[in-house]
Amino acid sequence: MLPIQDKSVFIDRDFKTFQYLINYLKTNNFPVFKTYAAEKSFFQELHYWGIPLPSPITRFKFDKNWCAENIKIENGGRIIKKQSPHHGLVFITPTMNVTNSYIEFIVTMNIPCKNKSHLYVGLVDQSKYKKQYLHSNFCKESPSVYYWDVWNKQLIKTDETGTQYTTKNGYGCDYEDYETKIAMEYDQENRTIRFYKNDIKFDIAFHNVPPNLTPALDVLFESGSVEITSTLKPEEKLYL
User: Fold this and answer.
1) Phi, psi (5° rounding) for residue 104?
2) Is residue 181's pLDDT more than 60?
3) If pLDDT is split at 50, 70 and 90, which confidence band does 143 have?
4) Distance from first CA to last CA of the chain, Å, rounded?
5) What are the CB-based long-range contacts (under 8 Å, 24+) for 60-64?
6) How far apart are CA 58 and CA 186, in angstroms?
7) In whole angstroms, what is the distance from residue 109 CA to residue 118 CA?
8) What values do phi and psi take at 45, rounded to 5?
9) What is the Cα–Cα distance from 138 to 129, expressed in whole angstroms?
10) Mean of all residue pLDDT scores within the chain
11) Cβ-Cβ contacts under 8 Å for 128 (sequence gap 6 or more)
12) Cα torsion 231, 41, 32, 51: sign
């Protein structure tokens, strides 16, 4: 029970954080924070009052304005088709945050590349990206990128200076299937990314990942497709 002083309810909470909370309850729009400290305080305030996080509400789509020419978008932005052996990068809208926290794909590879096929999935800071890189090897030229090289089982990050380095080898499990379910989950409260394959839940891949980064795929196989599913929550399976 809240204390009462002079017939008024007394709430001894941080004023700025409580303002965020009131606006969130009034508008149902999750706030955008200028600092990580302010964001962390807001999550603590939600937990203090027992207010649940917002439920996922958004359906992702491939972005026709940020798509390599060798990729064709179909089905209202839900499917891409690849018809050449070269790299092709496509962004996905909207960005990932607390209400857009999980994205899932069905990857179908009809004809692999003659040398070696690749699939890269991750997040990129779109504000620092250039369209001429859509035919490159994922986001090597762009800073602030986090992605999984699925076939090679590597986690790769590009820092603020544009320097790219491998953060972990052996992430995931063998990827030889011609049709596979791949998923990415972003936890804004803890600022982490984890990945899934065929509903197998892997360990956390990256820490200290800011919100509102753009999901992206780089597909390197000669013929095939990727479909965004309608699933909004991951399956509860674990990799043993």
Assistant:
1) -130, 140
2) yes
3) confident
4) 45
5) 60/92, 60/93, 60/94, 60/100, 60/103, 60/215, 60/228, 61/92, 61/93, 61/228, 62/90, 62/91, 62/92, 62/93, 62/228, 63/90, 63/91, 63/92, 63/93
6) 14
7) 10
8) -65, -40
9) 11
10) 86
11) 142, 143, 144
12) positive
Q: Where are the beta strands (DSSP E) in 188-231?
A: 192-197, 200-206, 214-220, 223-228
Q: Write the CB contacts of 24 (distance below 8 Å, at least 6 apart in sequence).
A: 30, 31
Burial class (CB in 10 A: 0-12, 13-18, 19+), 77: middle
Locus of tokens 């990068």: 89
Q: What's the one-letter identity of residue 110?
A: N
- What is the rounded distance in angstroms from the CA atom of residue 62 to the CA atom of residue 104? 12
d(Cα 136, Cα 161) in Å, to the nearest integer? 18
Q: Which residues pair with 218 in a beta bridge?
A: 89, 120
- Contact between residue 210 and residue 190 where contact means Cβ atoms under 8 Å apart: no
Phi, psi at 22, each rounded to 5°: -65, -45
In order of 8, 158, 221, the CA distances from 11 in angstroms are 10, 44, 59
User: What is the token pair recorded at 100?
Assistant: 């857009």
Amino acid letter for position 33 = F
pTM of the model: 0.86
CA separation for the pair 157, 139 (Å, rounded): 9
Alpha-carbon gap, residue 162 to 48, rounded angstroms: 39
Cis before 94 (ω within 30): yes
